[in-house]
Each structure stands twice: as structure tokens, then as C-alpha cells.
Amino acid sequence: MTLSRLLRCAGVSTAIHRFYPVSVGNQQFVFWIMASTACFVIVSRNDIPIYEAEVGSVLKKEEAAHLHQFILHAALDIVQDLAWTTSAMFLKSVDRFNDLVVSVYVTAGHTRLMLLHDSRNEDGIKSFFQDVHELYLKILLNPLYLPGSRITSSHFDTKVRALARKYL
Amino acid sequence: MIGVGKAKQYANVLDKPLSRGRQEVSLSAFAFLFSELVQYNQTQVDNIAELERRLEDAGYAVGARVLELLCHREKGNRRETRLLGILSFIHSTVWKVLFGKVVYLITFCIWKDNLYQKRYVADSLEKGTEHEDEYMISEKELLVNHMGAFNCGAFVAGIVRGVLDSAGFPAVVTAHFVPIEGQQRPRTTILIKFAEEVLRREARLG
């Protein structure tokens, strides 16, 4: 039984793994890294992106980044219709593209936190959105921040990436 | 051992936890700040209409933030999607948090540390009878109107407009004095006139 078949039986996608065989004495170990794609964008009420970050653990490729942005923008129409049908903030997955899923969290001021990802970890994604929502509130409460303008704080960027590593 | 009981200092504001918001500001501090705001704007404009517009813009910035913060804090992350929902949110939650404790007799309380306090909620939310898209919030003693000779209700109208606009209900909001017989001070009424698209969407959502 090969390693990839074993992993597939366990329900883990094998298409995106890299295997690193290491031998220690007589024993052979295989380390594998699970790589995930995730692109996170905050879009303001006027459909202008105010923050973007590639937060997956895959090395960023230029073509992939453009494609991610395109998919997220295309999902905006669906989000707009869906946002008025429910009073919840977390709209689960609103759109799919190949094996990538778009999940969206809409705040009270109609700022959309959108995540393009390939994992199925809904609870992790919901916690991620809630924590980023709190960070966004703190940025918004700054009286010198113009709502709807780009978020340029590097500390915010650091914290978002740390949250992504923690939950995604 | 002076610094032992000190509260934890955070390096960056993003690390500080969001406060739970039971804090109140003394009326004198707010009166001072608001009077400075009005006086500063008075030096920049030529007429009352322009002054009111500036006060409204100042209130708009407050409204946008108040909406997000209160939905997160008070309503456990539920958004408002219907017209009556957002109006009752403004009428109860926003008013309670912003003006919940009001000074009953303002003339001699400013010099005192203990403020006389009276709890109230905005008096009534009425639907204007002439047009389908108009609503009024009627207020007997609007806090900001104790300050000056003219109508500073434009600031509160700006707050309401900020809340509505950010929530996706664009509206024109104005503050008016309505004289009532039997009372020397006129009531202040905040008139909200919603845009066409709001009514269409409400009709579509049924």
C-alpha cells in the first residue's frame, strides 16, 4: 500500500502534498507538508478592496494571485443578494471555483470579509472571521481613519497573518 | 512597589481588547468638546446652513462607527436587514447608549461633579402621514440642544444618517423644531426620508 493511497483512505487530499523521506538509522520516516491555498480580502461597502493578503501556506505564484482576486470579485454579486436575505453575519460558502470555495462574513456596515480557500474547516474559518472582525472594529474606531479607505497598518497585517496561521 | 497594581500596558491599540462599553463621559466634558466643535465650525463658514451641514458630516462619521460597534457589542453580531428593524435599533439601542442618561437640570449641573441623571428613551418613533418614505423620531429634550441658541440637532441628524447609510438604507435626515402649545421649549424632531431604492428593496423582500 503506497503512502498516497493510505492518505486517501484517511480522507486527506493528496494532490497538494510534498513528501520528504528521511532515514534515521534503519528506520525511514516520511514527513509531509500540507499546503493550503487561501486568499483573504476585505471589501468595503462601495465594492473597493481595502485589504488583501495571501494567507495560505503555498508559495505565492503570480498567476494564481490574479486568479484569486478575479474569483473573489466575481463572487461579490452573489454576496450582495445573499446579504439581504439573512441577518447573520457569517454566510458560509457562497461560491465555488474548481476545488476552491469562497466564504464570506458581512459586518453591520456591509464591509465584506472574503476568504478563498480549499479547506473544509468551517469552525476555524468562522473563528478567523470573528477575530478579524474585532481587529477591523479597532481600526474603524480610529477617528483619523476614513471608512472605506485602504488599511495600511503593518501591525494589522501581522496580526491577520498570525490569525490565519492559527485558524486555517 | 508603585507600579505593581498597574493595568497591563499594550504596545499597540490593536492588541488592546475592545472595551465592554459601560463607560460614561461627564456631561461637562461633552459640552466643552461639542461647544468647541461648534465654535470651530462657526469660524469656517458664512451661514447657518453651511454650519449645519458641517455638524451633520461630523455626526455622520460618528454614526458609521456607532453602528458597527453596537451591532458587535449589544446585538451579538446580528445585522439589520429590514427597515423597521434598523429604525427600532436606532430608536432604542443607539439612543440608549449615546444619550441614555441625560442631565435633568443642565443650568447648574455643569459646575457640579455629580450629575443629576434621568433615564429616558427617545420619546416616540412615528411614521409621517404624508409620505410613505418618511419617519420621525421625536425628542422632548435633545441633549445637544441645551447648549446653544440655535439648532445643534444637525449633529444628531448626522449620527442617524451615518447609521442608516452604513447599514445600507440611504436617507436624508434633518432636524426640526416643532413648537408645542403648553411647553415653552419646542420639541426637536428628526425627520428621516428614505431613498427610492430602500423602498423598492423593502417591497421586494416582502
Automatic annotation (TrEMBL), chain A:
Signal peptide: none annotated. Pfam families: Sedlin_N. One of its GO terms (biological process) is endoplasmic reticulum to Golgi vesicle-mediated transport. One of its GO terms (cellular component) is cytoplasm. PANTHER family: TRAFFICKING PROTEIN PARTICLE COMPLEX SUBUNIT 2. This is Trafficking protein particle complex subunit 2-like isoform X1. It comes from Ananas comosus.
UniProtKB/TrEMBL annotation, chain B:
Keywords: Endoplasmic reticulum, ER-Golgi transport, Golgi apparatus, Transport. GO terms for cellular component: endoplasmic reticulum; TRAPPI protein complex; TRAPPII protein complex; TRAPPIII protein complex. Part of the multisubunit TRAPP (transport protein particle) complex. InterPro entries: NO_sig/Golgi_transp_ligand-bd, TRAPP-I_su5, TRAPP_component. Its main location: endoplasmic reticulum. GO terms for biological process: endoplasmic reticulum to Golgi vesicle-mediated transport. Belongs to the TRAPP small subunits family. BET3 subfamily. It is found in: Endoplasmic reticulum; Golgi apparatus, cis-Golgi network. It comes from the Eukaryota. Coiled coil: none annotated. This is Trafficking protein particle complex subunit. The keyword Glycoprotein does not apply.
